[in-house]
Amino acid sequence: MPKILSVKQLYAADTATVKKNDISFIDLMEHVGTLCFQWIHDRLQGDPITIQIFCGTGNNGGDGLVIARHLKQYGYNVKTHIINCGNDRSEVFLKNYDRLKEIGVWAEMITCESELPAVSENDMVVDAIFGLGLSRKPENLIKKVIEHINASNAFVLSIDFPSGLYAEKSVTDTVSVVMAYHTLTFQTPKLAFLLPENRYYTKTWEVLDIGLDAEYIYNAKTDNYLLYKQDIKPMYRFREKFSHKGEFGHAVIIGGSYGKMGAVTLSTRAAISIGSGLVTAHIPQCGYQIIQTSVPEIMVEVDAENEMQNFNIKVNASVIGIGVGMGTHIETVKGFTKFLNKNKVPLVLDADALNIISKNKELLKLVPENSVLTPHPKEFERLVGKWKNDYDKLKKLRSLSKKHKIIIVLKGAYSAIAHEGSLFFNSTGNPALSTAGSGDVLTGIITGLIAQNYHPFEAAKMGVYLHGKTAELAMKIKVYETFIASDIIEYLSSAIMDLLIKEPKVVPQKEATSENDKKAKPDEGKEMYI
User: Fold this and answer.
1) Rounded to whole angstroms, what are the CA distances from 516 to 44, 202, 521?
2) pLDDT tens digits, one per residue of 387-414
3) Does 515 have pLDDT greater than 90?
4) Which of 5, 140, 396, 449 is most buried (CB neighbours < 10 A)?
5) How far apart are CA 103 and CA 223, in angstroms?
6) pLDDT at position 529, please?
7) In DSSP terms, which residues pair with 224 in a beta bridge?
8) How far apart (Å, rounded) are the C-alpha atoms in residues 180 and 201?
9) Which SS3 state, helix, strand or coil, does residue 241 take?
10) How far is CA 79 from CA 69, 117, 126, in A?
11) What pLDDT does residue 525 have?
């Protein structure tokens, strides 16, 4: 499970790597810059596009100079610019500046706004101005350079971190941050990339393994993680030949109201589709024919005529998913409060269950430990109040989860799962999931997994991962706009099968090392799958 480390920890990892391998920082920088060059070379394969590299005078600028030197040696059309505004120059920057001059390349110095180079939308820009250690907003000439890059509409590749973006706090000047198309970040994911408020500063990003000391990273303590397939796959439980439905639990979905039976229909379909042995829908009478016809595989119990009032469940439930389409009618609120007072079964709370609790937060004390809450940002705001920024939002998320010993799935592009003070960010999904009923399906999936005796924390992680994966797989034949909540259920089998498929072994070919490599075949230097 990839750890999301702090700036301080990553600097310590650099130091540990240098010490353990008996190398210098400039050796490490040469290695990192070469990997970045190789990434560019693998994709351009000698294309004569103009590559404009903008370097600061610190270590990130040193990375840029290494990239510039290698690109120049392999015949690329490179223009290297150094922002010369009186900043201190790091030792490794100066050494790499000298190495660039040794091959006959003199970088252009930018000392004032009038010296800003023309940048075409057909150029590639490499942003190596600031790394992730920035603590104050860019000003004066550097800010002008950043604005100039952003106005060019060129493809911008940021090295490690978009310049001007903070790694551990919110941006205070939105126009002084490079808006990268792609970022090559080093060794570990960065928390800043997962937050909605930073969405404009890098459209895509990937982690470049630069070989930092594995032992240090393994022992580093963190409360932030990013979930990938390899983290979810070990949780999956294969079924035995002689298993039967009684071994896979009984999920109950409580919800629905007049005009809102679609939500509970989706949740029950999801719960049965993910493998719950039995599923019962507890709904208002008005929805009986709808759900019995729509989901014939489930059982149905009815409550009052048009809304939930009594919550008088008759079956022996393993877990209860509650709130979807339920409404907040006064009688529903009364019945829900009585239900919480007497319930001892694990819960998955969503939608109107959360909205009712948000108006009487004392009800949270009645929620059993390890229950799962699945709010979207607005529902979460109703629970905890407004936040100053996304970092403050995550602080509130940790606090609420820890205080009440519950698991909270804060839905979003990188859904954050809070458990025992730690946050686990999901890596799957895309904008196709921004559709009515998507959250109702997630509630059913998580409820159905808990019914099968997955720990609620496991169910939350696996449920969110599979939910997101369905949207990725569906995009092979669909587009975002035509994807609907029912499609999530239809693609659940594909998502589980994908989880179990063994990843192909990746064998990277050797890096380009000589002048003759410029004449290599088009595929040379790319990854090969065997």
Assistant:
1) 16, 34, 11
2) 999 999 999 999 999 999 999 999 999 9
3) no
4) 449
5) 46
6) 23
7) 423
8) 6
9) coil
10) 11, 9, 10
11) 33
Instruction: Tell me how far apart the alpha carbons of residues 168 and 7 are, in angstroms, rounded to a whole number.
Output: 8
**Which tokens go with 389?**
């920024």
Q: Which residue has the tokens 């790499």?
A: 96
Joined together, the tokens standing for residue 342 give 């007497």
The CA distance from 370 to 373, in Å, is 9
Task: Give percent of the chain above pLDDT 90.
Answer: 92
Fill in the amino acid letter for 420: E
In angstroms, the CA 205 to CA 220 distance is: 23
Q: How many CB atoms lie within 10 A of CB 503?
A: 9
Task: Give the residue, 112 or 300, on which the prediction is more confident.
Answer: 300
Q: Residue 269 in contact with residue 275, Cβ under 8 Å? A: no
Burial of 166 (C-beta count, 10 Å sphere; 0-12/13-18/19+): buried
Q: What type of residue sits at position 178? A: V
The count of C-alpha atoms lying within 13 angstroms of the C-alpha of 16, restricted to the half-sphere facing its C-beta, is 16
The 3-state DSSP class for residue 109 equals: strand
Burial of 387 (0-12, 13-18, 19+ CB in 10 A): middle
256-284: burial string, b at 16+ Cβ within 10 Å, e else: bbeebbbbbbbbbbbbbbbbbbbbbbbbb
What's the confidence (pLDDT) of residue 506? 55
Residue 206 token pair: 């990937």
**pLDDT, tens digit, for every residue of 476-509?**
999 999 999 999 999 999 999 999 998 766 555 4
Instruction: Give the span between the Cα atoms of 155 and 195, in whole angstroms.
Output: 22
State how far the alpha carbon of 212 is from the alpha carbons of 54, 66, 90, in Å. Answer: 25, 18, 21
102: which 2 tokens? 């040794």
Q: Cα–Cα distance between 116 and 274 in angstroms, integer?
A: 57
Q: How far apart are CA 415 and CA 78, in angstroms?
A: 40
Strand partners, 78: 51
Tokens matching residue 212: 């930092």
Confidence band of 514 (pLDDT split at 50, 70, 90): very low
**Phi, psi of 45, deg, nearest 5:** 50, 45
Closest-CA residue to 477 (of 466, 460, 464, 490): 490
Q: Pick from 168, 231, 209: which is nearest to 13 by CA?
A: 209
* Range of weakest confidence among 186-190, 489-493, 514-518: 514-518
Arithmetic mean of pLDDT over the chain: 93
